[in-house]
User: Fold Orotidine 5'-phosphate decarboxylase from Vogesella amnigena.
Amino acid sequence: MNPLILDNAAGVTASPVLVALDFATADAALAFATRLDPAECRLKVGKELFTAAGPQLVEQLAARGFQVFLDLKFHDIPNTVAQACKMAADLGVWMVNVHASGGRRMMSAAADALAHCSQPPLLIAVTVLTSMEAADLAEIGITVSPHEQVLRLAQLTRDSGLDGVVCSAQEASELKSLLGQDFKLVTPGIRLADSAADDQRRVMTPVAALEAGADYLVIGRPITRAEDPLGVLSDINADIRAWQQARG
Ligand SMILES: O=C(O)c1cc(=O)[nH]c(=O)n1[C@@H]1O[C@H](COP(=O)(O)O)[C@@H](O)[C@H]1O
Assistant:
């Protein structure tokens, strides 16, 4: 089923956009969030902001009505990751992630830990970072293509009982048909037709990503570094609505 319709039913934002709040201070992040409307997007708090501002900032964003994706990409021994995921659940986040390369036992421990929480966040696993291409994988001893490695890790993630993966939109269509409609695909590496790729390598535009099967779009710099961030977000949401309407 289309996630936009599901989200509407739950009474939260109908937009699949997760704005990556990659800011260096709590003040900068809160000033930016003040300009955003929880009806228009969710927010992602990652390593830079969390290291600078800590859990309190996550709670402040949630108190303003935003659903928060805590993107700390946990990767450690199973017990440590399971406990960290429980802490994320206690913070009230909507989604949390781990690295799929931590393996089955690590991912299952995280899923089991969240199963005992009263309000478990969605638990997803990063497959191959969208900044990586074949040459980067080869240097760390992975000689299959990024595509093949994503498929392998996504399969392992589903078998370990998680809700979905972070992947590039370039892998979305195959993952949807292989792993089913309910398995969530969260896709960073989203770029507008005229935006710079920056350090991203496996990129796609917002509507093309949804068309390929992405459920959620993580978008940072194309919005946060734009001259008119709200205008860019509103244009992206308008394009998405037009695409939805065209699909019926
Ligand atoms: O887990 C993530 O969110 C993530 C995974 C991945 O493979 N690639 C990736 O870019 N991200 C995050 O998504 C955001 C992308 O930001 P922009 O490249 O500025 O749009 C950053 O906050 C990254 O940390």
In short: Residues 1-10 have pLDDT under 50 and may be disordered. The CA atoms of residues 15 and 238 lie 10 Å apart. Residues 3-238 form a domain with the TIM Barrel fold (CATH 3.20.20.70).
